[in-house]
Amino acid sequence: MLVRGRTSDSGIAAPTTPDNGVARRHPSPPMGCRLLLCWGFILSLGSVPPQPALSARLTALWRRCAVREEPDAYRRCMPDLFVPLPPSAAGRGVGGQFAPDGGSALRRADWLRHPSLERVRPHLEDPATTDVFVNGPQVFVDRGHGPRRAAGIELSEADARDLAVSLIAAGGRHIDESHPCVDVRLDGGARVHAVLPPVSVSGTLVSIRVPRLQSVTVAELGRRGMFDATVGDRLRDIVAARENVLVTGAAGAGKTTLLSALLSEAGRDERILTIEDVAELRLEHPHHVRLEARQPNLEGAGGITLARLVREALRMRPDRLVVGECRGEEIRELLSALNTGHDGGAGTVHANSLGDVPARLEALGALAGLTDHALARQVTSAIGVVIHVTRDRDGIRRIGALGRPTLGPDGRLHIEEVS
Fold first, then answer.
1. 405 forms bridges with which residues in the sheet?
2. Which of 56, 137, 213, 401 is the 20 to 30 Å CA partner of 384?
3. Distance CA 281, CA 275 (A)
4. Contact present, 253 and 139 (Cβ < 8 Å)
5. 3-class secondary structure, 119
6. What is the DSSP string of 314-380?
7. What is the tens place of the pLDDT at every residue in 356-394?
8. How many whole angstroms separate alpha carbon 208 and alpha carbon 132?
9. Alpha-carbon distance 131 to 206, whole Å?
10. CB-based contact 43:66 (threshold 8 Å)
């Protein structure tokens, strides 16, 4: 937090004397914060330099730094830039809930009215749209049957970059040449991933995943053809028995959607705590607490990893502990938690097929310092059911197989398919 006081020539705040007469030394704000404070002062005077791209990036950085460092001072000094979050943005903090009507909540989101979205807004507001992709000058739209080129839209590189910068800033993060790959969640549940050149050879890339289900329930997924009535009853039994579940599948196969539906079937008197890199799980449950990882700031400090959040969550007395997507060392913390009496938990992992799950988990375990044999014993003890989901060429998401972890004769992990 910024403090008032005399500052020496070295940039270190001079000692200040409080009422009790004891000298106390306050650290001066980091150089990055001081530069952003200067930019905020320029904004307050209305003297914005005539470089639109630079201005947008610095403005986004200022808002991000000011809101996180000292929100009260930000409101006092920059009232013209402070816009209160709408109710649909409550999910950005711990314990917030997404509006259950995902599509209409998205259409009410403030970021959707940004001028940079003018040419793609009709596709984002289309109830049939599930994904929008910006590949440099080209725009592709997926309405459940694969990406198709959007006719009549041709973006310049400046337009595509402004779109990426605006969307990432709306999610409270920043993107520039030093941080060219960023993933954020926006009001209404949309998820955005952006990549800037030169990392992206073909120009600025933006991927927007749009939530469309009004209610993510097991019954709704069954009606949409993800599984039949028999499998639906079995899924409900798994949740009722509080078995630990691992949902696997390729990107976009529907892992998060299925996990949201399963957790929504949990008892109303249970406390569900979910941990995600970018919060996507939308539950119809009265006691859903949400934690989201945080990127380091411009000076490389302040980052909070999934592994740390798992450790913090264990002190919050969850009835069900869920890690939205395991992609690194957090697999060790999750397995340890599920092996110490935290039943009813869940997680998701990317895998091509049910048979590929052991190899994928071994790779993640290696990142956490676990040997193949140690991982196998942890998984067989912690995970009760593995659910693999697939996405067919027709765009329909289905449950491909169910399995149970077993310990093979070689001491390594195997997944036994169950009917």
1. 415
2. 213
3. 9
4. no
5. coil
6. GGG--SEEEES---STHHHHHHHHHTTT-TT-EEEEE-SSGGGHHHHHHHHHHHTT--HHHHHHHHH
7. 999 999 999 999 999 999 999 999 999 999 999 998 877
8. 5
9. 10
10. no
Q: Measuring CA to CA, how many Å separate 25 from each of 73, 285, 364?
A: 21, 48, 45
Cα–Cα distance, 404 to 414 (Å, whole number) = 8
Which residue in the block uniquely carries the two structure tokens 């195997």? 414
What pLDDT digit, counting tens, does each position of 215-259 carry?
678 998 999 889 999 999 999 999 999 999 999 999 888 898 899
Torsion of CA 334, 336, 339, 344, to 10 degrees: -20
Is residue 350 a contact partner of residue 327, using CB atoms and an 8 Å limit?
yes
Q: How many CA within 13 A on the CB side of residue 100? A: 9
Q: Identify the sign of the CA torsion 186, 141, 352, 261.
A: positive
Pairing mode of beta strands 205-209, 131-135: antiparallel
Tokens of 387: 């659910």
Distance CA 400, CA 94 (A): 33
Find the mean pLDDT for residues 397-409.
Answer: 94
Number of alpha carbons in the 13 Å side-chain half-sphere of residue 293: 23
What's the token pair of residue 283? Answer: 């539950």
Please enumerate in sequence order all residues whose Cβ is within 8 A of that of 51, keeping only pairs 6 or more positions apart, or say none: none
d(CA 26, CA 7): 10
Please give the biggest Cα pair distance in the chain. Answer: 75
Q: How far is CA 381 from the centre of its chain?
A: 28
What ranges make up the beta strands (E) of 97-180? Answer: 131-135, 138-142, 147-149
Reported as a single tens digit per residue, the pLDDT across 343-354 is 999 999 999 999
What is the C-alpha separation between 159 and 11, in angstroms, rounded? 40
> Are the CB atoms for 339 and 382 separated by under 8 Å?
yes
Residue 25 and residue 15: Cα distance in Å, rounded?
4
Angle between helices 306-313 and 330-338 in degrees, nearest 10: 20
CA distance 407 to 118: 55
